[in-house]
Amino acid sequence: MDLQPVLDGIVAALAPLAGAEGKVADYIPALACISPQHLGLALRTCEGAASQAGEGAQPFSVQSISKVFTLTLAMRHLDERELWQRIGVEPSGTAFNSLVQLEFEGGKPRNPFINAGAIAVADRLVSVYGQAGAKAALLALVSDLCGEPVVFDEAVAASEAATGFRNMAMCNFMKGFGQIDNAVEAVLDVYFHQCALRMSCVQLARALGYLCRDGAHPLRGSEQVVSERQARRINALMLTCGTYDAAGEFAYRIGLPCKSGVGGGIVAVMPDRLTLAVWSPPLDEAGNSLLGQVALEQFVSRTGLSVF
Ligand SMILES: NC(=O)CC[C@H](N)C(=O)O
Asked: What global pTM score does this model have?
């Protein structure tokens, strides 16, 4: 099936609605000035055929989508017991930045795709690589997956470091429960930088290609990024936890493993077929791109692709 007309059709249908509803994330000052009008889409098939539409090639702040890359990095370097001992694999049913559950559950985050869980993953990466080394390893992984250099937006990272009070609270809270091994400042520096990765939909669809290829590298198929089983598990976590307390709604409406970020990006994986990335900055109440969800819904209804 030629998917270029599908992407073009979605952009044509949605462009008039871009910026009409939802709210661009403004709790991170550097994100508040992004135009709500942007709309981009890109996909890459398992065989490596790529298509894009609208502003598919325009880089933006990937925010929580980075949680997939840091989990991948952690899975590559830690054994399962080490990794999952202090991070769960259950949907949270609460907001991405909620503190409530953490207290009840002894500082153990529900899953690696909410902020607390990603901060715990960042802590494990600091243990493996050190603070500067963790940031360098993340850039190296993502650049390698993209086949071109990817960088942090230092202005966004600094903006988050200056205003990320809830994330600081969360990290200190977990540290108080003995669940964080390294200095809070070092862990948060890694976390704020990972959120500030700047990538386009084209790059995201390419980089996350291993998730639709049973873990095989998107550009060098004979190499595994993660094992087949690990790729399956990342997809399972994306389906159940990738969009916070809207994961049920996403599974119902879209039916694909997805990961969103407050920069307005969402990536979706159709195992054995393709990865798809959308970008539209205005968010709904749960912090997921409003028009991005509509674009994904249109994509699955126009193509019939679903994991169900
Ligand atoms: N959902 C998100 O994209 C959240 C990431 C954001 N940097 C935060 O920590 O609040």
From this structure: 0.98
